[in-house]
């Protein structure tokens, strides 16, 4: 599926019937050959938007997966880059893929809802992982990121505008989320992956409650919707 090097539909289905952690352990060797890996276009756009706000000292990629975020963090951070993920398989792939990076990234296995860091970073980013967190889990996630940042530290991530009702993507995302809710109602452990549980306004309020000052900036590379609003924004949450 997706390419000759990517997983088959049968493999994806089998992974979705396990837990999130086990599913990504299984998917890790082929993950970079799927559309689930954040495209370089997004990584480069975020890196370019953050560059005028830096340079930064130490950087953290939250839910780093196979380490794609190093592409954005590496040029921005002068001291160190750390990736954190709860999948041992994804971290093993990240170590292999980025062993030549200098300075060498550090890879830490941990649950993003309980990050093991205290005032250790100046910049934290995350790409494409927030569908794995239920709305009720966002406060713990954001509190952990805030704790990991030094005072004045920045948490940055892109967030896309929801597709309009007339878009085929609206119905594709709605159908996927419905299928996942049915799957999780009848099978344990759950596999949490939803496309429509991370709306900008709810996220903004949760960040503010966690102790961040929040602003957003349009990522101009992705254009605007017919109503003039950005198709994609960069959320900038600064630890106050």
TrEMBL record:
Keyword Disulfide bond annotated: no
GO MF annotation list: methyltransferase activity
EC top class, as a word: transferase
Keyword Kinase recorded: no
Record's protein name: Class I SAM-dependent methyltransferase
Domain (Methyltransferase) ranges: 60-153
Chain ranges passing through the membrane: none
Enzyme Commission (EC) number: 2.1.-.-
InterPro entries the record matches: Methyltransf_25, SAM-dependent_MTases_sf
Keywords: Methyltransferase, Transferase
Pfam families with a match to the protein in the record: Methyltransf_25
Example of a GO biological process term: methylation
């Amino acid at each position: 599926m997706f390419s000759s090097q990517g997983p088959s539909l049968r493999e994806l289905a089998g992974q979705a019937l396990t837990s999130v952690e086990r599913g990504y352990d299984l998917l890790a060797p082929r993950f970079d050959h799927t559309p689930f890996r954040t495209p370089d276009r997004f990584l480069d756009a975020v890196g370019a938007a953050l560059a005028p706000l830096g340079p930064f000292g130490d950087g953290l990629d939250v839910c780093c997966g196979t380490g794609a975020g190093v592409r954005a963090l590496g040029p921005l951070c002068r001291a160190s880059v750390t990736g954190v993920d709860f999948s041992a398989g994804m971290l093993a792939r990240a170590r292999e893929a980025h062993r030549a990076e200098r300075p060498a990234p550090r890879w830490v296995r941990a649950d993003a809802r309980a990050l093991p860091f205290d005032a250790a970073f100046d910049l934290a980013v995350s790409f494409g992982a927030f569908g794995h967190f239920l709305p009720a889990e966002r406060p713990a996630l954001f509190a952990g990121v805030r704790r990991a940042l030094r005072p004045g530290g920045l948490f940055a991530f892109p967030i896309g505008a929801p597709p309009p009702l007339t878009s085929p993507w609206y119905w594709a995302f709605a159908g996927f989320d419905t299928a996942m809710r049915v799957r999780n109602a009848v099978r344990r452990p759950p596999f949490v992956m939803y496309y429509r549980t991370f709306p900008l306004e709810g996220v903004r309020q949760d960040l503010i409650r966690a102790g961040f000052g929040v602003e957003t900036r349009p990522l101009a590379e992705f254009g605007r919707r017919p109503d003039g609003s950005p198709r994609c924004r960069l959320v900038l949450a600064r630890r106050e």
